[in-house]
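dude i think i finally got it to work??
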Amino acid sequence: MSEQTYTFTSESVSEGHPDKVCDYIADSILDACLEQDPHSHVACEVLCKDNHIILAGEITTRAKIDYEAIARKAVREIGYTDGSEAFNADGVTVKVLISQQSGEINAGVINATDDQKEQGAGDQGIMFGYATSESPELMPLPLLLAHRLTKGLADDRRSGSFNWLRPDAKSQVSVVYEGNKPLRVSSILISTQHSSDISQANIRDYVEKVLAPRALGNWYSPEAEIIVNPSGSFALGGPSADCGVTGRKIIVDSYGGAGRHGGGAFSGKDPSKVDRSGAYYCRYVARRIVQAGLAERAEVQVSYAIGRAKPMSVKVDTFGTGDAAAAERFVSDNFDFRPANIIKELDLLRPLYRQTTNYGHFGKAGLPWEKPVPVPA
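look at this
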């Protein structure tokens, strides 16, 4: 029987997308806290709209933080500096609605209810990690390519080579598969904010001749359908045009829909929140399974109860691409999903989170859950 042929699509958004602006501000605040106090407990939420930034959440830290200055700096780094726009680094109004973390949650995190010597999970929930051999990064190819396109837009904007580019953008890539093997890119969609004096024909020319061939590399084909700014002009963008909120791009942040997601967002949360650290560790373990040759695709699920150190469950799925029983034994014998171990093993009590915010939390070199660690014997 021949293997099924199908098309799978994933999207990416740029650092100037309103939701990503909020994620970046939240992770900038987190890093600032951890830089001064590695044991800070941070749960920061951000909303951006027009000339307003609202910071809310719970933060317990010994760090001295100027929240407004951090927010303005983050907006400036993204590239919203045009004073003629409502949303710009110098012109926004920043409202701070931040209190300390609940004492009840803090008590359960410091001393787990099932083991007083251990750290408890900062919340209940389920987390997933995924890895696939279809790319060197062990990431789903459609998402990987979509991220390369939005990152390419940002790189070209920052270089000044195409000074009509603006910060807000989206991409979408469709890949034709046979079974688990990607065959070709069938379509590319780019929606990019731009200055009002550039024609749509010139934008399309740039995407077809510069951006797409460079970003997709060997996966680029002139036969692929390319769609650029399908609604027409995209001169109005970013938080000046749309509202942004933290945690609304969780599929873009993870696996583009190819792997499951537990529902918890990452940005603005310190590693005591297993929504973030547990998902990172599941990815770390899924990569080890694939690297060990136990499966071509692997997904790891973990679940926690707030205040407890030991996970409620750990599940491994190889989707019929390997020895599921061997993979489960491998995980059970070599990996410890207790929050304190995750934080120690991945060295998470340091300011590394701003580099995770954009273009995916997974598949990027230099992150501790992505490092080429030797597989345990």
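The chain has nine helices and eleven strands.
im so relieved honestly
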